[in-house]
Amino acid sequence: MQTRGKFATSFGVLTATLGSAVGLGNIWKFPYITGKFGGAAFIIVYLICVALASLPVMISEIVVGRRTNSNAVGAFKKLKPYSAWPLIGYAGIASSFLIMFFYTGVAGWVYSYIFRALGGTFVNATSDVTGTIFKGLITDSLSPIIWQVVVLLVVSVIIIAGVEKGIERITKALMPLLFILLILCDIRALTLPGASMGVKFLFNPDFTVIKGDVLLIALGLAFFKLSVGMGTMITYGSYFGKQENIPATAVKVALSDIVVSMMAGLAIFPAVFAFGFKPDAGPGLLFITIPMVFSKMPMGNVLLAVFFLLTAIAATTAMISLLEVPVAYLVDEKGWPRWKATVLSTGIIALIGSTASLSADPAGVLGATKIFGKTFFDLYDYISSNILMPLGGIFIVIFVGWFFGKRNLQMELSNRGRLKNGVFLNVFLIITRFVSPVLIALVFLNAIGILKI
Ligand code: PFF
């Protein structure tokens, strides 16, 4: 039996967990979804979803992981042997694969854009030009797949290096760098003439667009953003030391994650408005609008490369945590060495993930293939973000609220009585027993059409 890894420092715990939360979600999904659904109004709904649903799930997952020192499946096997609870863990492994299928593809585009920006591809480009370049990339049958493989190689090397020497060491170096690069981009965007429109857009609420389906989108995003509902935080929680303050760490991660999303929004929207573009360009915002907007600034190419570098960093630290879910399972439960677990998992992702890259554009190789009316890309995203993660989230909070044992919960939340947070325990119990499950269930049933809000 090999000894399991652990994060060695509290700073490492924070950077690794935040590294999982911060990702393409902040820079790609959050801005375009906010752009589409009413700016600040959407952000308010999103914040409520974080506070009442995804943050409680995050705390619950870390508690279960640290308590059991186990991967997402093993944790439930230890706590409730011969029960159906480990299914949560298996569903989590499925989600992590589904997300990796499309996430590695988008990350590949991001990696390739760093080099394109540096090479001057976007100098003085119009939207037609950046649009054509993006289409050219995603309709190509080879280049997106090569980039996807490059991304997988980078992530694999870090995972094989181990929990402390790989995940912790890399995130400790990269997360501070990410903040510095983001601040740089913010300063540039906010000092552009006309930037205030973008700031207003981000902070002025338009509640008329908030309907039932927007609620589901906010909830799905809140889960995706904090990497919860699928065992990632159980896995990382199992690497937390006994002295780490779980609720405080989770709150710090959730707040910092929101700060990063806002900072990304502040780097993007002021520039978009300053140059007279529309904020609701959809997923293309990052790859079509941004390159064009940045190319209009002095030294725009360098800044664009910086922007894509920070996006690549965010995506990479998030993918590390995604890949760690199946790897930890294979290592713990099947006794495999890390390298073997990593090679098998990445192999599956590379094979099936290519269907996501190739279906990303209607004109792409698999663009016309639809399953349940969705392309492969959208299908993987939809099943993981809108179905498996909310379902996983409900069962995890129900498990911790009702079946984990109040005393066990108290031991984990207070570090065996060392932290004085008795009131918090009671509030947390009410939230996990009633508020989160009901909220997630309502939004979920509405989304799949069983209930109409
Ligand atoms: N939280 C990441 C993001 O916002 O991009 C995505 C993610 C990472 C989701 C890890 C789930 C996960 F387990």
Radius of gyration: 21 Å
Question: CATH homologous superfamily?
Answer: Hydantoin permease
Give the helix tally: 18
Q: How much of the residues is beta strand, in percent?
A: under 5%
CATH architecture: Orthogonal Bundle
Q: Class by helix and strand content?
A: mainly alpha
CATH first level: Mainly Alpha
The low-confidence runs, each spanning 5 or more residues with pLDDT under 50, are none
Task: Let me know the average pLDDT.
Answer: 92
Distance between the termini: 51 Å
What general form does the structure show? globular
Whole-number count of domains: 1
Structural features, described:
With 453 residues, the protein is mainly α. The chain has a single domain, classed as Hydantoin permease (Orthogonal Bundle), CATH 1.10.4160.10. The chain has helices spanning 10-21, 24-36, 40-68, 72-79, 86-118, 127-139, 143-161, 163-190, 196-203, 212-225, 232-237, 246-274, 284-295, 300-334, 338-358, 376-403, 406-413, 422-447. Bound molecules: 4-fluoro-L-phenylalanine (PFF). InterPro entries: Na/ntran_symport, SNS_sf, YocR/YhdH-like. This is Sodium-dependent transporter.
Write the layout of secondary structure elements.
Layout: H1 10-21, H2 24-36, H3 40-68, H4 72-79, H5 86-118, H6 127-139, H7 143-161, H8 163-190, H9 196-203, H10 212-225, H11 232-237, H12 246-274, H13 284-295, H14 300-334, H15 338-358, H16 376-403, H17 406-413, H18 422-447
Helix pairs in contact: 1-8, 1-12, 1-14, 2-10, 2-12, 3-4, 3-10, 3-12, 3-16, 3-18, 4-5, 5-7, 5-14, 5-15, 5-16, 6-13, 7-8, 7-14, 7-15, 8-12, 8-14, 9-12, 10-16, 10-18, 13-14, 14-15, 15-16, 16-18
Bound molecules: 4-fluoro-L-phenylalanine.
